[in-house]
Amino acid sequence: MLLEQKFFDLIEANPVIAAIKDDRGLADCCSCEDIRVVFILYGDICNINRIVEQVKAANKIAMVHVDLVSGLSGKEVAVDFIRYNTCADGIISTKPPLIKRGKELRLYTTLRIFILDSMAFENVQKQMSIARPDMIEILPGLMPKIINRISRLVKVPVIAGGLISEKEDVVAALSAGAISVSSTNPHVWEM
Questions:
Q1: Over its length of 191 residues, how does the chain's per-residue pLDDT go in tens digits?
Q2: Residues 6+ apart with CB under 8 A from 120
Q3: How far apart are CA 108 and CA 88, in angstroms?
């Protein structure tokens, strides 16, 4: 519980998360003092350790989206690879079994859920019961009514991500109940 509380407190105190998808984003987020948590959305098995090390050297929490690391499978061993071959603090995944494995390995975990229709919405509780993540990330993040409903439905903090590009998007998501927003847009990082 202490591990999850530290992660929660850090995100609550720093409600904008830098999501990076290339080396330029890596350099930009590492030089941004206000960013404390980084979602790493790229890399491969040969360079993910270097990427994570750069984030850690900038004194930031490194969360690796295991589904997006080239060369890793969609199986639990991918989480083991991140845990034992990098200094990442946690993982992000759309796959509940990977989140469950991350919890077993004492990594911070974020379950990423795409809310595309009512069926996806109705599936949230099932995914939560399997994965038991520390947090969930709802995409796209431009749905205040849905963010509000999910925030009341689940017992973990909600992050809004995807398509967030303006201050109004950030304010709307946070007002709807998200604890934080994630964005690949460096202008959002500085808000």
A1: 556 677 888 888 899 999 999 999 999 999 999 999 999 999 999 999 999 999 999 999 999 999 999 999 999 999 999 999 999 999 999 999 999 999 999 999 999 999 999 999 999 999 999 999 999 999 999 999 999 999 999 999 999 999 999 999 999 999 999 999 999 999 999 88
A2: 113, 114
A3: 9
Q: What is the Cα–Cα distance from 164 to 96, expressed in whole angstroms?
A: 25
How many CB atoms are located within 10 Å of the residue 120 CB?
A: 14
Closest C-alpha among 47, 123, 137, 129 to residue 93: 137
Residues whose CB falls within 8 Å of the CB of residue 124, separated by 6 or more in sequence, listed in order: 113, 115, 136, 150, 153, 154
DSSP result, 19-56: EE-SHHHHHHHHT-TT--EEEE---BTTTHHHHHHHHH
Give this prediction's pTM.
0.95
φ/ψ of 190, rounded to 5, equals -95, 5
Contact 84, 108 (CB under 8 A): no
CA angle, 146 as apex, 142 and 148 as ends, to 5°? 105
SS3 69: coil
Strand 90-93 relative to strand 108-114, pairing: parallel
Tokens 């038991």 sit on residue: 132
